[in-house]
C-alpha cells in the first residue's frame, strides 16, 4: 500500500528535509511551512524514521477536509474508515491538536470531538461499544490551517530529535535535528575541519561525527509503529536495521572539535559522544573562545553561541562576540555559520553575513548567519 506521509520540521529547514527525503528515494508531494509531504510504502515508515536527520516525526496522512463547526468536524471524522489504521484492541488517542487562523481553535475540544467520532466510527465496524485498548498504541495529531483539518497518525512516538545519546545537556542546547540541519546547510564534508567553539553538551560535533561515520540517527531507538503488525511487518524493521548497520564506517578520519569554557559540560559532551559511539571521532576540550585556533585552512565553524534569551547573561554578550570575532579573523580562510537571536552579530563580526536564514529554534526566532571563507584550491579538494 502507498501512503502519503507528513514530516514536520523546524520552520526554515524545509528545503533540507526535502533533499533528505529525495535522497532516500521517495517522491515529494508537497512542501508547506514546517512540513514536507511525501509518498512511500510500508518500508518508508521504518526507513524515514531511521534515516531522516532533520525531521521532527513521520506521520501517515489519514484525512484532510474543511470544517468550521464541531458538528462538521465530528461528521467528517465519523465517515472515515479508521479500522484501516486502528485494530480492534488498539489503544488510540489524539495526542495533539494545533489550530491557526481557523474557526475551531480550542485544542482540547478538537481532540475530544475527534476521539468521540473515531470511537463511533470504529464501533460500527467492530460491532462493540467499549474498546479494550489493550493492544498497540496509535497516536493521532491534528492540524487546522484556515479551516482545513489534516489528521495524521504518528509513526514515531517520542520526537526524532531524541537520538538516545544526549543524557546530559547544557543550559540552552540546540536540538539534534536542528544541529543536523545546520550542518547540512553548509558545504562541510567529513574530510574538512569542523569546530564548534560553544559546543555545550556536544550536539553539533556529535551530529557531524554521526554523518561522517554514516550512523543513522534512529538506529539506536524505538518507534511507536514498531508494534503495528496491522500496518508494517516486523521484517521491514529488520531490513532497515540491516541497511543502517551495513552503512556504518567508524574508521573514517575526521577533524571535528568541540570547545567550551565549562569543564563540567565538556565532560558531559564526551559522555554523550561515547553514547553515540563517535567519541573517537571528536576532540573535546575546555577552551575559551578567545583561544580559538587551528593551524590549517578552509575549515568550518558551526555553532550556537549564547544570545541572552535563555542564558540570562546579556551584559556579557558584547565581550563574548568581540572575542569570537577576533579569534575568527585569526583563522586562515575559515567559514563561520552561527545560529543566534543576538541582533548585533554582524556588528561584532565586522561585516555583513553573506547569507542569513530565519529559523525557529523551538518558539524562539533566530537567524542562521553564514560568513563564507575562501574555497580550497581545486587540487587540494581532489587530494581530500
Topology diagram in text:
Layout: E1 3-8, H1 14-23, E2 27-32, E3 35-40, H2 42-51, E4 59-66, H3 70-78, E5 91-100, H4 107-126, E6 137-145, E7 148-154, H5 176-184, E8 193-196, H6 203-212, H7 234-247, E9 255-260, H8 263-275, E10 282-286, E11 300-303, H9 317-330, E12 335-340, H10 345-349, E13 355-361, E14 364-371, H11 378-383
Parallel strand pairs: 5-6, 8-9, 8-11, 9-10, 11-12
Antiparallel strand pairs: 1-3, 1-4, 2-3, 4-7, 6-7, 12-14, 13-14
Helix pairs in contact: 2-7, 3-4, 5-6
Describe this structure in words.
With 384 residues, the protein is an alpha/beta fold. It has two domains: 3-154, VC0802-like, CATH 3.30.2130.30; 176-216 and 237-383, Rossmann fold (3-Layer(aba) Sandwich), CATH 3.40.50.150. 31% of the residues lie in helices and 24% in strands. It contains eleven helices and 14 strands. The chain has helices at 14-23, 42-51, 70-78, 107-126, 176-184, 203-212, 234-247, 263-275, 317-330, 345-349, 378-383, and strands spanning 3-8, 27-32, 35-40, 59-66, 91-100, 137-145, 148-154, 193-196, 255-260, 282-286, 300-303, 335-340, 355-361, 364-371. The strands form two sheets. A seven-stranded mixed sheet has the order 2-3-1-4-7-6-5. Strands 10-9-8-11-12-14-13 form a seven-stranded mixed sheet, covered by helices on one side. Helix 2 (42-51) packs parallel to helix 7, helix 3 packs parallel to helix 4 and helix 5 packs across helix 6 (203-212). The longest helix has 20 residues, at 107-126. It is elongated.
Amino acid at each position: 500500500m502507498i501512503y502519503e506521509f507528513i514530516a514536520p520540521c523546524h520552520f526554515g529547514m524545509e528545503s533540507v528535509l526535502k533533499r533528505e527525503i529525495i535522497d532516500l528515494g521517495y517522491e515529494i508531494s508537497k512542501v508547506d511551512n514546517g512540513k514536507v509531504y511525501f509518498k512511500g510504502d510500508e518500508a518508508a515508515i521504518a526507513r524515514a524514521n531511521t534515516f531522516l536527520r532533520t525531521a521532527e516525526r513521520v506521520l501517515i496522512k489519514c484525512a484532510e477536509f474543511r470544517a468550521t463547526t464541531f458538528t462538521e468536524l465530528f461528521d467528517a471524522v465519523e465517515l472515515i474508515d479508521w479500522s484501516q489504521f486502528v485494530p480492534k484492541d488498539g489503544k488510540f488517542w489524539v495526542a495533539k491538536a494545533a489550530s491557526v487562523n481557523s474557526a475551531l481553535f480550542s485544542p482540547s475540544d478538537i481532540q475530544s470531538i475527534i476521539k468521540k467520532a473515531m470511537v463511533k466510527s470504529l464501533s460500527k465496524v467492530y460491532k462493540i461499544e467499549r474498546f479494550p485498548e489493550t493492544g498497540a498504541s496509535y497516536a493521532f495529531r491534528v492540524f487546522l490551517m484556515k479551516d482545513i483539518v489534516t489528521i495524521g497518525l504518528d509513526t514515531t512516538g517520542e520526537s526524532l530529535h531524541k537520538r538516545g545519546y544526549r543524557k546530559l545537556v547544557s543550559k540552552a542546547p540546540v536540538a539534534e535535528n536542528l544541529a543536523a540541519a545546520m550542518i547540512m546547510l553548509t558545504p562541510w564534508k567529513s574530510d574538512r575541519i569542523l569546530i564548534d567553539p560553544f559546543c555545550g553538551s556536544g550536539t553539533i560535533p556529535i551530529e557531524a561525527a554521526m554523518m561522517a561515520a554514516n550512523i543513522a540517527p534512529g538506529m539506536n531507538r524505538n518507534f511507536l509503529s514498531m508494534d503495528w503488525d496491522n500496518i508494517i511487518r516486523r521484517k521491514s524493521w529488520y531490513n532497515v536495521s540491516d541497511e543502517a548497520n551495513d552503512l556504518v564506517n567508524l574508521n573514517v578520519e575526521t577533524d571535528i572539535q568541540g570547545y567550551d569554557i565549562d569543564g563540567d559540560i565538556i565532560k558531559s559532551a564526551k559522555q554523550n559522544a561515547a553514547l553515540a559511539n563517535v567519541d573517537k571521532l571528536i576532540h573535546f576540550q575546555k577552551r575559551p573562545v578567545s583561544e580559538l585556533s587551528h593551524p590549517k585552512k578552509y575549515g568550518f565553524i558551526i555553532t550556537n553561541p549564547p544570545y541572552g534569551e535563555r542564558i540570562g547573561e546579556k551584559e556579557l554578550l558584547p565581550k563574548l562576540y568581540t572575542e569570537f570575532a577576533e579569534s575568527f579573523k585569526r583563522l586562515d580562510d575559515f567559514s563561520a555559520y552561527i545560529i543566534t537571536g543576538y541582533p548585533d552579530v554582524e556588528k561584532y563580526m565586522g561585516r555583513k553575513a553573506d547569507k542569513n536564514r530565519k529559523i525557529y529554534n523551538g518558539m524562539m526566532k533566530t537567524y542562521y548567519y553564514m560568513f563564507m571563507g575562501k574555497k580550497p584550491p581545486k587540487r587540494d579538494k581532489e587530494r581530500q
